[in-house]
TrEMBL record:
Keywords: ATP-binding, Ligase, Nucleotide-binding, Purine biosynthesis
Origin superkingdom: Bacteria
Domain ATP-grasp residues, every copy: 110-300
Originating species: Paenibacillus tritici
Designated name of the protein: ATP-grasp domain-containing protein
Signal peptide feature range: none
């Protein structure tokens, strides 16, 4: 038999044949052009342009099944979960079904199911501007308006004042939105692997700022030691959320919870996929586990490599957000042995816009430490170094400099 993989990642982040080296079956790969050129021995490989909006991906997958049947479809990216679930149902293949994929993608439906078991913010799906008006009348400001199927805090508005509310109405709400009450407190994220509705592995971290407010702000996600007093409480809360939603079968998960001043845990959202923003890579740095690898192998029925003891260290990932301007100076490498990964996402000379999502960064840096105290000390040292070594000339100064140069030449 065979398996089909739907992929939109670069090969460096998705080495499927390496992950599946002991799989005694053919592997078919349908991928976006981002995967890059390869001579890897996929039994069948096809590249699609405009991947996320290209409906031919599903049609060609159906045609492929007729000529070369496969027993599984695997997809790692959130925007592929619904199309993959449709194909599974059509072909009667195992894995996450459409009901589960929708529950994990549609945040309004998610909360309607989860609110029967855990605390959720007051929320409402927005089918008209009157719904937003009524919600604000009932719950007051601030509120958060966001897409029901959004990712990375894109197209999300925090409305704090009547003036901001008027701006939203004047702009027009658009479709596919929801509103929820703004929750004060710290935000935590929990990542792991589930089989059915049982958590088999979990990691938990604390955001230095709420992702919904991260645009244009620095953020550090510190992974917590399992001995941290709140760790098991977070995992238990996520277990309840998972039990409230239709089972995705075998899947990774990424959940975000608010911890309020009243010591309550409140659900922000959960996704049936691996965390972005290099959080999963920081999990790997701390626990030695690649969640995507284990997710793919588990679906194929292959042996897993999951941690069986507490990690010897903690880790965290720092994200430097984009801001308008021109990159004048950027380090090629970082001189610290406790940096396990440094990924610059821009180049010297590049002109930047403002950040459009919570993971739209100048760079990401993963650091490790013996405990939270040493990790925070190293973060402080890193930030001091980057303050000296990173230079982004603000857009307004760039204009002034250009005008001065023109004047000087006249």
């Amino acid at each position: 038999m065979a398996i089909l993989i739907l992929n939109q990642r670069r090969r460096a982040f998705a080495p499927y044949l390496t992950w599946l080296e002991d799989l005694e079956e053919e592997v078919y790969l349908y991928t976006s052009a981002a995967y890059g050129e390869t001579t890897e021995p996929y039994a069948i490989m096809q590249v699609f342009n405009h991947w996320t909006t290209n409906d031919r991906v599903e049609i060609e997958a159906l045609k492929l099944y007729e000529e070369h049947p496969y027993r599984l479809i695997i997809a790692l990216d959130e925007s592929d979960l619904i199309r993959t679930a449709r194909l599974r149902e059509r072909l009667s293949l195992p894995g996450q079904r459409l009901e589960s994929a929708m529950a994990y993608r549609d945040k309004a439906w998610m909360k309607s199911l989860a609110s029967q078991y855990v605390l959720c913010p007051a929320f409402r799906r927005l089918d008209s501007p009157l719904h937003l008006y009524d919600f604000v009348q009932e719950h007051g400001l601030p509120v958060v308006v966001k897409p029901v199927d959004g990712m990375g805090s894109m197209n999300t508005d925090i409305i704090r004042t009547p003036e901001q509310l008027n701006e939203v109405w004047e702009r027009g709400l658009g479709a596919g939105l929801m509103v929820e009450a703004y929750i004060e407190g710290e935000m935590y994220e929990i990542d792991g692997l589930m089989m059915g509705q049982e958590i088999r592995f979990a990691s938990a971290g604390r955001y230095s700022c709420q992702p919904v407010e991260i645009l244009g702000k620095e953020c550090f996600v510190e992974l917590l030691s399992p001995a941290d007093p709140i760790f098991q409480r977070l995992v238990q809360e996520v277990q309840q959320v998972i039990e409230a939603l239709p089972s995705p079968g075998i899947s990774t998960f990424h959940c975000e919870l608010f911890h309020t001043r009243e010591d309550e845990l409140v659900l922000c959202e959960i996704a049936s996929r691996t965390a972005g923003g290099r959080i999963s890579e920081s999990v790997s740095a701390m626990y030695g586990v690649n969640l995507n690898r284990e997710w793919v192998r588990a679906q194929c029925g292959l042996p897993l490599t999951l941690p069986t003891s507490s990690p010897p260290r903690v880790a965290g990932v720092y994200l430097m957000p984009k801001r308008p301007g021109t990159v004048k100076k950027l380090p090629e490498a970082l001189p610290f042995d406790w940096v396990t990964e440094y990924v610059p996402r821009v180049k010297t000379g590049e002109v930047l816009d403002a950040a459009h999502s919570s993971v739209d960064a100048v760079m990401t840096v993963i650091i490790v430490g013996g405990d939270s105290v040493s990790l925070q000390a190293r973060l402080s040292q890193l930030l001091q170094y980057l303050e000296r070594e990173v230079q982004i000339l603000p857009a307004l100064k760039e204009v002034a400099w250009s005008e001065a140069s023109v004047i000087g030449r006249k």
